[in-house]
Amino acid sequence: MGIRFDAVTVAYDGNVVLDALDLTVAPGEVMALLGPSGSGKTTALRAVAGFVRPASGRVFLGDRDVTDLPPHRRGIGMVVQQYALFPHLRVEDNVAFGLKARKVPKAEIRTRVAEALEMTGMGAYARRHPRELSGGQQQRVAIARALAIRPGVLLLDEPLSALDAQLRSGMLAELARLHRELPDVSILYVTHDQMEALTLADRIAVMDKARLQACGTPRELYRAPANAFTASFVGNANLLPVTVGASGAALGTAELKIDTSGAAPGASATLCVRPHLVGLGDGPNRLTGTVTEIQWRGATHRLYVDVDGHRVMADLPELRTPPAHGESVTLHFASEDAVLLPAGVGDHG
Amino acid sequence: MASATLSTPAKAGIRAPAVPAWVWALPPVALLALVFLYPLALVVQQSFQPDTGGTSIRPYADVFASEAFREALWTTVWLALASTAGCLVLGFVLALVIAFVPFPGARAVSRFVDVFLSFPSFLITLALLFIYGTVGMANGLWTDVTGAAEGPFRFLTTPWGVLLAEITYFTPFVMRPLLAAFSQLDTAQLEAASSLGARAPRIVRQVILPEALPALASGGSLVLVLCLNEFGIVLFTGAKDVTTLPMLVYGKAILESDYPGACVVAVVNVLISVGLYGLYRVVSRRAGA
Ligand SMILES: Nc1ncnc2c1ncn2[C@@H]1O[C@H](COP(=O)(O)OP(=O)(O)OP(=O)(O)O)[C@@H](O)[C@H]1O
Ligand SMILES: [Mg+2]
Fold this sequence. Notes:
The complex is a heterodimer of chains A (349) and B (289).
Chain A: E1 3-12, E2 15-25, E3 30-34, H1 41-49, E4 56-61, E5 64-65, E6 76-80, H2 91-101, H3 106-119, H4 135-148, E7 153-157, H5 165-181, E8 186-191, H6 194-200, E9 203-208, E10 211-216, H7 218-223, H8 228-233, E11 238-244, E12 249-251, E13 254-256, E14 268-273, E15 278-280, E16 285-297, E17 300-307, E18 310-317, E19 328-333, E20 339-342
Parallel strand pairs in A: 3-8, 3-9, 6-7, 7-8
Antiparallel strand pairs in A: 1-2, 1-4, 4-5, 9-10, 11-12, 11-14, 12-13, 14-20, 15-19, 16-17, 16-19, 17-18
Helix pairs in contact in A: 2-3, 2-4, 3-4
Chain B: H1 2-7, H2 21-47, H3 58-65, H4 67-100, H5 106-117, H6 121-132, H7 137-146, H8 159-184, H9 187-195, H10 200-228, H11 232-237, H12 245-255, H13 259-286
Helix pairs in contact in B: 2-13, 3-13, 4-8, 4-10, 5-8, 6-8, 8-10, 9-10, 10-13, 12-13
Bound molecules: adenosine-5'-triphosphate (ATP) and magnesium ion.
């Protein structure tokens, strides 16, 4: 079942926290809502679940307009960061809760609870209370509980952020497996962690300041970000102010041969190059500057270079003889690795 | 090194020789003994000393044999149980509304509950008298409108009047711990329940009520004990034929000057209170509260 936001606006006390969101999640698709804290991700998710009422706009589940439907009639699975298990109920009764509320026959409840627990690898813990489980196990139970009602839509609000890094990557793989087993379930996955979004999502919706900034496949967002905010939030980016010329662009005195189709000569624009695509030494597009900082990161060296007052980052395979602090170096990048963004879209750097 | 010093402060030699812990317990225990245990002991002692002299269980035999005592015992117990049940139901419903139904002024109402707790119990009874008493507002309105000589509201001097007054007065004692418990409740649980398809009644029964049980138990047991010992409300309703144990103590001691008898009733009253409290502790510990 798909999800569709149609110009959904949410305001608290006249404060707009979600501004005319238009977004469609296709049936069976995993959509990540990615953005910094306070950007309105949770609000968007709660509008789907029915816990906030949009000031304007409609929310659709499949073809059904659910904007005016109370949460208990939407048939949505929801998992939140703090698990929200019922502490006085055993794991199996937690999972059975939604089935009982829906008056599913007793015999069927038993098989569906077992099935949901099996799917999340919690079959052995059915008789335990939530307080007798680890954080990761509790989150599995919460997922089993949400899946037991066989929802068409699964909403996940930072489900892994209470877990430690190691457990998180394990659970991420679990979620990917679950989605392969349930290919018809649409998933809306709220996170502020770009790794989670890049790993799990078919498409990513990038949010900032109550607005949708960009939406696309991870590859699209990474290779050709629509604006500076997206470029810097999805992966790292060097964002350099350039002036468009006749057959390239100029950064200060440096002439860069890049694709400028769509930009008028003489206009200002922002050049985006990923740090790992910047090389040391001479090449097609040259930038010369002084090294301001060198960080050794195991497999790579991160160089910060001051080019005409602009900071350029370069991630280089570990250098045998790294340049010294204050040394003058030349950097280069391939023309096809650079993306020209319209200037002034987003003021993040 | 630092941790070693910390764990053996006595060796540091800075402080004077430590005073044994039990010394600190002496003042409170002495105070407790003086103002509470000693009078209690006197009451118990008096209850074994009939007016005829000597020490015997005669006063107990006499009191237990009397019809008035047995009636007062029954009245006390059923009134206390019924009031407690009423307070629990009413308090739970009111606390639910205050905590979960968003309405303007919910905060003010919940503040008022705190203030209400500080009111003396007779004040409520007085208020009820003004409204439902023989010459109260309700009856006055009735006689004005119908021209009848007397109004129909005369339940205030019956046990039902006492029950109403006790429920009115003691309900906030149940609401207090309930509101505290509800404010601790994770709203994410309520939202999870409703997205799983549960309507409000099911959420109340299966999510809120189980979490509220310890608060209900503590509020309920407090109200039960307070009701067993309530004196002011029963006196102020002016219900002549409603005699509870505290009223009986008052009657025997002040009106009949039967001190041993009064002390016997008092001892029984104390034993019931302490017994019920002990029962509550056992039950609540079993429940893991
Ligand atoms: N109940 C509320 N009342 C008033 N303001 C709220 C309420 N809930 C959220 N907000 C505001 O709405 C904005 C968006 O909040 P939201 O929870 O959607 O952010 P988020 O993107 O999920 O952030 P995070 O990553 O920190 O969870 C925030 O500025 C927040 O202060
Ligand atoms: Mg959030």
